[in-house]
Amino acid sequence: MSARLPLPEGFLFGAATSPHQVEGNNVASDWWAFENREGTIVAERSGDACDSFERWREDMDLLRSLGFNSYRFGVEWARVEPTRGEFSRSAVAHYTRMVEYALAIGLEPVVTLHHFTHPLWFARDGGWTADDAIDRFLAYVDAVAPVIRAGVATVVTINEPNMLAVMQTVVRGEAALETGLGGGLPVPHRETAERLAEAHRAAVDRLHRDHPGVKAGWSIANQAVGHVADGEALAADYRESREDWYLRQSRADDFVGVQSYPRTVFGADGIVPPAADAARTLTGWEVYPAALGDAIRQTAGIVGDVPIIVTENGIATADDEQRIAYTAGALDEVARALEDGIDVRGYLHWSALDNYEWGHWGPTVGLIAVDRTTFARAPKPSAHWLGAIAREGALPLAERPVAEPALNPAGVRS
Length: 414
Ligand code: BGC
Prior knowledge:
Largest sheet: 8 strands, parallel, barrel
Strand order of the largest sheet: 2-3-4-5-6-8-11-12
Radius of gyration: 20 Å
Shape: globular
Bound molecules: beta-D-glucopyranose
Oligomer: single chain
Number of helices: 14
């Protein structure tokens, strides 16, 4: 385990969060309304979350002191435009300060403009399928110009548009979302998907026009879809509507974000469940670090020479040793991809903090624990371990396995 692969110059090595999951009191958003309405089906509310709207400096200081050189965080549309057409100068100034501070301490900001939540007014006025949805999103992109101008080089326009469109299928009552992904993801809502792609394209053009040199892309949830005997056609069909279509929209972008957690394996009759004794995350997903390699290769196969940034990868576990083992496996996949000449420009671990996992506080995904009453931060051993690798600027190279795992998706791995 002593071999090392030096990382390319400028490699972004850090961790990620999203506004709703860490800031707290995102009261003008649709998610806040969803969590807090009478008889909500949401198990737990976000509430004060990690209080990062106040404590973001502490978060950044910690990440930097751990050894990271990058932090992916988001701007919250519902704070910037809490009422239709009324933009908050204070919110824009807040995010501008975040960018300035990150740069001042040596953290390269990767800024997400949209991460699952919407201003409540936008959702009520028809969401992404409303006639003026694209114009509304562009008005927001215009409003955050000072944030970008403060020195942001990398912008994720929309986080996981494929999952956003899946959520629309669920919200519209056209399918139920199973926990544990046993039955796979519902088909993303087509019209929403098309509007999101249109919004993304328009936002990229606007960013290029107003902020020359800024790199813009979106980030796609990747299920590392593979197959065993006779599952190829089902796998290809599933991948097309859930992922490949979105990846093709990235072909003209400056980068594409890869977000990898579980894998999905098809056989002749549908999804092959993980082995009964397979280790599971706190969200019920199979623990399978090699999914990241599959996701990177699938993405590269579709986007060609568009650079890849791993914008999310991590594990919901209470066992930090397991987090380290999982992440070591995932980093080895990044190393193999780099060795094979794939243009991977960054690894941003999900998540920096034990955050609000969309309805639950139980699945702890953070490198840094957060006390839910005092908000005190405590970096876990995994944070020190990963930070040390980032500081060194080289990935450890694991022994190469002699045989591939039995359920490895055929045709995806090299
Ligand atoms: C999302 C995050 C989420 C993570 C882990 C991704 O789908 O972008 O917001 O917390 O998965 O569940």
